């Protein structure tokens, strides 16, 4: 006898499309339904930054897992049982768990302005695509302290340029170092995954850099989406992905 499931995948997909259109995603991205079917159903909705084994093992069967980062990102040429991501796909299939990702489209509609407005407490800001701009009235170290205290971060990786100002600030959640060259009139740039040569270029351009960490900037994914889905009537549950990095 076929199970009767409470919610339809097509319906929640269309709702997500209405708040963060999938057409907004970058050409290299893979947002959308990753595993499952639009005609399938599910009982519970889980939210996580990543698809990992601990998350999948904690989920009930016949569920939908919405993540920020897509499990399948690049084209797959083979599915070998003990390789990544095949091993996780196998576990999801076994438990009839569907996977749906809202990645770069969500960055553009929700992520950056939530971090700036709700977490950092900045009341006035402007968002342009991925980048959120705001003014800062204090110095560079006060901005670092605000980030550490509001985000619960013990250490920041920073690069201080020759520029004495820290008035115009830009923020990109996740990995945003590729935007350094396009920043005009910015004194300080906050993002994650900054590399050595990114820092050297920023120094030359007179831009201070603050690397909060990719995970740290995007760990609010479930916190943002939870009230939106529950208000719509979905039984949403936040399950926390683990940061793959530790400091020793």
Automatic annotation (TrEMBL):
Domain of life: Bacteria
Sorted UniProt keywords: Metal-binding
One GO CC annotation: cytoplasm
Binding site for a divalent metal cation: 68-69, 107, 214, 218
UniProt keyword Zinc present: no
A Pfam cross-reference name: DUF34_NIF3
GO molecular function, a single term: metal ion binding
InterPro entries: DUF34/NIF3, DUF34/NIF3_sf
Subunit: Homohexamer.
Family: Belongs to the GTP cyclohydrolase I type 2/NIF3 family.
Protein name per UniProt: GTP cyclohydrolase 1 type 2 homolog
Record organism: Helicobacter apodemus
């Amino acid at each position: 006898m076929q199970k009767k499931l409470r919610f339809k995948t097509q319906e929640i997909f269309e709702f997500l499309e209405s708040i963060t259109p999938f057409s907004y995603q970058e050409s290299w991205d893979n947002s959308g339904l990753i595993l499952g079917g639009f005609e399938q159903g599910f009982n519970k909705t889980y939210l996580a930054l990543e698809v990992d084994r601990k998350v999948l093992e904690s989920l009930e069967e016949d569920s939908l897992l919405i993540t920020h980062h897509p499990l399948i990102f690049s084209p797959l040429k083979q599915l070998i049982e003990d390789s990544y991501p095949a091993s996780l796909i196998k576990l999801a299939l076994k438990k009839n768990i569907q996977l749906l990702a809202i990645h770069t489209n969500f960055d553009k509609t929700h992520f950056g302005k939530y971090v700036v407005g709700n977490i950092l407490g900045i009341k006035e800001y402007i968002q342009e695509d991925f980048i959120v701009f705001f003014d800062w009235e204090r110095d560079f170290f006060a901005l670092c302290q605000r980030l550490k205290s509001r985000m619960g971060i013990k250490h920041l990786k920073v690069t201080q340029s020759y520029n004495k100002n820290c008035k115009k600030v830009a923020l990109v959640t996740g990995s945003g170092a590729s935007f350094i060259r396009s920043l005009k009139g910015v004194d300080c740039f906050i993002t994650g995954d900054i590399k050595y040569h990114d820092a050297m270029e920023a120094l030359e351009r007179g831009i201070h850099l603050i690397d909060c960490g990719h995970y740290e900037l995007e760990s609010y994914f479930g916190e943002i989406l939870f009230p939106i889905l529950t208000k719509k009537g979905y039984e949403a549950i936040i399950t926390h992905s683990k940061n793959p990095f530790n400091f020793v």
